[in-house]
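Design request, tokens follow.
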């Protein structure tokens, strides 16, 4: 084995470990692989970048655009809806129809897109037939994966394998060369699901006789009633006259106000600007442990003795005024959005914008060029702050300067921590004093020592003193929260159904497969303000979460339970970042463009089938026509592309080639042959299939295909068998992502709406993997002679 092949194998091993651990995004790993191959001299710069001009990559992004156009015109949705309505009432008929429809659609459009399009339709069918969605959604995902095996464009792995073959000098696959084995897998997979796997799917316990089945199902799944309570606003409460957002009920207590009982009237899904009135009864959802803790234990004691402004500065701490520059990363963001404290270990005391000074609740203030920040800076950080490119003005200030310009003294207070305070034992970051209560901790001291600049990791103890900046009204609000009266448990049982009306509704939504919102919190998205909807619960990993949702990062596969105006739910359905799981709020389509979209897609397919044009060129022209004819805007076209997949495949592409050229693939092939060769070709095929199938459960299938295709071709050469046949083995195995929800985005997409757990995929998907293995071992040699 040469030094080059050893180096390649080391890169492969590191790549595998990074992909499996998911510490780094898969597309970033691919770009690191590309860079490593180029820096090591294993490939030339042109070869390293060849993936971006690869026909496979071009075809993949063009097919994403074509799929987006078929979705936008309503073609795919209408076809799916009409076909699925023929599925009858029995579970077997429904599963057959769903899997067959998803499979046929996935043969010609992206399989994740097909799943996303049919997801609301299947949810609606489940409700109409009073069946559990969990009985139908895994079949939907598996049907789309099986259908992708039937054509060249059905899955990116097929295109990638074909391109690697061409690059190595082998003949390319035609459009329907995958169909014989793919159709056998699709039909066999439907039979396996109907006869075997469906009996391993979970079933929600839904009352079939319910007159409002959707509400019954939602309450059964999310247990919303269990976390619904009534809070009474007393006549002398300081909350009276404040809006809901000013009351800090959500920020401080982590609860949602989902309705207000006002006399005989019920205000459902009140706007954050709704003012609280005397005698209001707040219908809230969440946990009341924090409120009960505030009521039983004093959070902080306040000393009304006014501290001197000079307490803010010392030999070790300076006061600085900076002005934000054009082009700064701060422009258009908030301190929270960019983790300002994490980037600059300083305290922000005030913000001046257009002459208006804001001194409290600064975390969510939107910043603009020309805004001025007043900062409290440790001496050792002063030089680094001065050299930052974010400012056009930097000035050291004295205490008197600060008082003249910002009038901070009226908001400075010294607070002490009672021995039995619920804050004891928490760090300042965990206490969320600034975010929850509007109390900015500037400095702390213990045992009457000197005040030291506060640090997020500082652990609070009883008896500590804090120099804080707080608006007196915020302190009164905190005191008023402790005065809310909790209704007796046996009386506090609002009916979830009562929270709906002709104007207000409840529905579920999931993140779209290609959304950039994954990893962001509801707070970062300003979800309530932007969409006008309450998130009552999030279903994740087989269980509902109903408290402190605003700081929970969203993941692909989460199902969000939404409550709000039906008009807002309809608007959300038009957002490409979400899929609303209700037919009556589906996205607005362009039905007048449907015939044109079908014609363009038909021309693309015919030109590829008849070999008039290469598939990549035909798909690019078709994509351009979709935009030129107004079916998609160029912005919609860009959003239709799963850029993560594009960069993943383009970055990994050179790895497959260099494994073959350096002999690394041959070395691995000899190892495979050495273990299985004595048992014959069937054993070799089975070993390659199982290895590729295992990889595709834990990493993106294009990555698994890139790693396995050189080994398969090398193995074929070792035993003098057809490399084309062995490539087809990898194509089959790379599409068997049935065992885990993370194996394929289609699996993740149905996890939340179906209420699935990880093990549900393993139990139901195992038999499908075995089916495709049997097809590869026994049927493939007849279709693709060895």
């Amino acid at each position: 084995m040469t030094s080059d092949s050893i180096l390649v194998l080391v890169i492969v091993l590191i790549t595998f470990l990074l992909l499996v651990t998911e510490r780094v995004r898969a597309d970033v790993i691919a770009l690191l692989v590309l860079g490593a191959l180029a820096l090591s001299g294993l490939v030339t710069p042109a070869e390293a970048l060849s993936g971006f001009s690869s026909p496979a990559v071009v075809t993949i992004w063009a097919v994403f655009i074509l799929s987006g156009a078929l979705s936008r015109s309503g073609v795919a949705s209408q076809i799916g809806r009409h076909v699925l309505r023929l599925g009858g009432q029995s579970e077997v008929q429904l599963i057959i129809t769903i899997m067959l429809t998803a499979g046929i659609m996935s043969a010609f459009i992206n399989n994740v897109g097909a799943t996303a399009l049919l997801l609301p339709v299947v949810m609606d069918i489940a409700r109409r037939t009073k069946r559990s969605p969990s009985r139908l959604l895994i079949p939907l995902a598996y049907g789309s994966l099986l259908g992708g095996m039937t054509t060249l464009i059905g899955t990116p792995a097929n295109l990638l394998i074909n391109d690697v073959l061409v690059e190595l000098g082998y003949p390319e696959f035609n459009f329907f060369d995958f169909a014989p084995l793919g159709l056998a897998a699709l039909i066999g997979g439907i039979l396996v699901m109907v006869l075997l796997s469906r009996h391993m799917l979970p079933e929600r316990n839904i009352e079939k006789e319910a007159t409002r089945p959707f509400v019954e199902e939602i309450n059964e799944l999310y247990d919303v009633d269990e976390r619904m309570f009534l809070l009474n606003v007393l006549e002398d409460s300081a909350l009276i006259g404040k809006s809901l957002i000013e009351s800090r009920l959500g920020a401080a207590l982590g609860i949602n106000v989902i309705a207000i009982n006002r006399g005989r009237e019920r205000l459902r899904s009140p706007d954050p600007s709704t003012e609280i009135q005397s005698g209001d009864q707040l219908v809230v959802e969440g946990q009341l442990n924090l409120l009960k803790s505030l009521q039983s234990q004093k959070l902080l004691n306040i000393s009304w003795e006014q501290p001197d402004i000079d307490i803010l500065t010392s030999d070790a701490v300076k006061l600085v005024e900076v002005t934000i520059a054009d082009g700064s990363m701060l422009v258009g963001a908030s301190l929270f959005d960019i983790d300002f404290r994490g980037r600059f270990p300083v305290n922000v005391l005030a913000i001046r914008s257009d002459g208006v000074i804001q001194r409290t609740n600064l975390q969510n203030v939107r910043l603009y060029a020309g805004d001025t920040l007043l900062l409290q800076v440790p001496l050792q950080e002063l030089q680094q702050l001065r050299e930052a490119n974010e400012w056009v003005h930097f000035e050291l200030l004295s205490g008197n300067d600060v008082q003249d310009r910002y009038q901070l003294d009226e908001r400075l207070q010294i607070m002490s921590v009672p021995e039995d305070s619920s804050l004891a034992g928490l760090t300042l970051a965990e206490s969320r004093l600034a975010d929850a209560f509007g109390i900015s901790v500037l400095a702390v001291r213990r045992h009457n020592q000197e005040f030291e600049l506060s640090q997020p990791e500082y652990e609070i103890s009883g008896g500590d003193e804090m120099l804080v900046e707080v608006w007196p009204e915020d302190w009164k609000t905190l005191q008023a929260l402790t005065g809310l009266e909790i209704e007796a448990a046996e009386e506090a049982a609002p009916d979830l159904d009562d929270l709906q009306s002709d104007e207000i509704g409840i529905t579920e939504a999931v993140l779209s497969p290609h959304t950039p919102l994954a990893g962001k919190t509801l707070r970062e998205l300003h979800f309530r303000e932007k969409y006008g909807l309450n998130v009552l619960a999030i279903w994740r990993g087989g269980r509902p979460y109903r408290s402190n949702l605003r700081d929970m990062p969203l993941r692909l596969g989460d199902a969000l339970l939404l409550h709000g105006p039906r008009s807002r739910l309809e608007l959300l359905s038009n957002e490409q970042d979400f899929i609303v799981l209700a037919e009556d709020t589906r996205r607005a389509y362009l039905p007048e463009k449907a015939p044109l979209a079908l014609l363009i897609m038909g021309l693309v397919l015919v030109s590829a089938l008849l070999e008039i044009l290469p598939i990549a060129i035909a798909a690019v022209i078709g994509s351009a026509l979709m935009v030129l004819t107004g079916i998609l805007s160029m912005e919609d076209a860009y959003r239709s592309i799963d850029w993560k997949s594009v960069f993943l495949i383009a970055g990994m592409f050179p790895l497959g080639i260099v494994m073959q050229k350096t002999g690394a693939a041959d070395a691995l092939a000899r190892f495979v042959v050495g273990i299985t060769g004595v048992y014959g070709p069937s054993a070799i095929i089975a070993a390659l299939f199982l290895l590729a199938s295992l990889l595709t459960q834990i990493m993106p299938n294009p990555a698994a295909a890139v790693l396995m295709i050189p080994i398969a071709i090398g193995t074929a050469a070792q035993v003098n068998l057809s490399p084309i046949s062995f490539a087809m083995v990898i194509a089959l195995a790379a599409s068997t992502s049935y065992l885990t929800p993370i194996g394929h985005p289609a699996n993740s997409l149905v996890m939340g709406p179906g209420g699935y757990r990880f093990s549900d995929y393993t139990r139901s998907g195992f038999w499908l993997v075995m089916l495709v293995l049997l097809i590869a071992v026994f049927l493939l040699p007849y279709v693709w002679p060895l």
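Comment from the thread starter after seeing the answer: thanks! Residues 758-783 form the longest helix (26 residues).
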